[in-house]
Amino acid sequence: MAEITAALVKELREMTGAGMMECKKALVEAEGELEKAVDVLRTRGLAAVAKKAGRATDEGTVLALVSECGHDGALVELNCETDFVGMNEKFRAYAEKIAKAVLANKPADLEALKASEIEGETVEAVVTDAIHTLGENIQLSRFAFAEQPEGAVASYIHGGGKIGVLVEFKLGDASFATNDDFKKYGRDVAMQVAAASPVSATRESVDPAVVEHEMSIYKAQAAESGKPENIQEKIATGRMEKFYKENCLTEQAFVKNPDQSVNEYTAEVAKALGTTIEIVSFTRFMLGE
User: Fold this and answer.
1) Tally of helices (H runs) and strands (E runs) in the chain
2) CA atoms within 13 A on the CB side of 133
3) Are the C-beta atoms of 275 and 172 separated by less than 8 Å?
4) Residue 31 to residue 23: CA distance in whole angstroms
5) In the chain, helix, strand, coil percent, each to 5?
């Protein structure tokens, strides 16, 4: 069994908010495995962690760019050594140039992006130039490209580049991709993703492994109640329903108006525009995660 160190207990406590002794007991039961210890605490009702906890440690920026037609979007994370450089306008200009390369070249992976060209030079050369100009080790860590020819892409950046989001939509009429009212709605939904950090766009798109894991926790919690099995099943199902409403984008309470869900807000905007809107998927980057 792995040694249960004070540092491991502290990390579990920071992840879950549970007491020191409860954390130590959970780690002993889980034989030192952090994720299993989280599940032990959740089963006992001492933690409500639904996602892996993590800390953003790298400096830099996350930058989003949507094409003029509104059908394509790019998300780029460019890392550096200090916050001072990360907030520098020159550094952000390099990130924007790389995002333009994503839109122009639609690369399949990071290596393809580095080899692609923008304004007569490769992206790898752009990063090298940034290193020489700004005097820090700069790394292009990841990117995302979103494309919806029959729909639209919206973006949102939070905290000056700490969190970046792209959301993809299907539209009954693709021309609404550049409509100002739709763009406001799209930005609102992307802001929702930044603020509420959903695990998926819809309940149907939740990873089956996540559903199985959550349901096993809820069933274990229900079993602790000592109630009849049919009641336990209802308790577990009810908690799974709560998980969907809290973690699926379309079912979450809308951050700007908690009295309505994102689905209801979407229906309201679609009706006003005279078209159909479907939230397809999203990508969320947190700096350094």
Assistant:
1) 11, 10
2) 14
3) yes
4) 12
5) 50, 25, 25
Q: Cα–Cα distance between 44 and 47 in angstroms, integer?
A: 8
The SS3 assignment for 161 reads coil
Residue pLDDT, tens place only, 196-233: 999 999 999 999 999 999 999 899 888 888 888 889 88
Beta strands across the sheet bearing 59-66: 59-66, 72-80, 139-147
Query: What is the spatial distance between Cα 255 and Cα 196, in angstroms, rounded to a whole number?
Result: 8
Query: What residue ranges define each of the domains in the chain, with the CATH number in brackets?
Result: 1-49 (1.10.8.10), 59-201+254-286 (3.30.479.20)
277 CB burial (10 A radius; 0-12, 13-18, 19+):
buried
**Residue 227, both tokens:** 């109630």
What band does 116 get if pLDDT is binned at 50, 70 and 90? very high
* pTM (2 d.p.): 0.79
Give the total residue count for the chain.
Answer: 289
pLDDT recorded at residue 69: 97
**Hey, is 154 helix, strand or coil?**
strand
d(CA 210, CA 194): 21
Task: Map residue 195 onto helix, strand or coil.
Answer: helix
Whether residue 86 contacts residue 95, with contact meaning beta carbons closer than 8 Å, is answered with: no
Q: Look-up: residue for tokens 């309505």?
A: 260
CA 119 to chain centre: 31
Write the CA distances from 79 to 26, 137, 161, integer angstroms.
Answer: 36, 8, 11
Q: What is the DSSP string of 107-119?
A: -SSHHHHHHSEET
194, 181, 118: which is closest to 155 by C-alpha? 194
Quick check: 65 and 100 in contact, CB under 8 A? yes
Name the 3-class secondary structure at 210: helix
- CA 108, 203, 163, 171 torsion-angle sign: positive
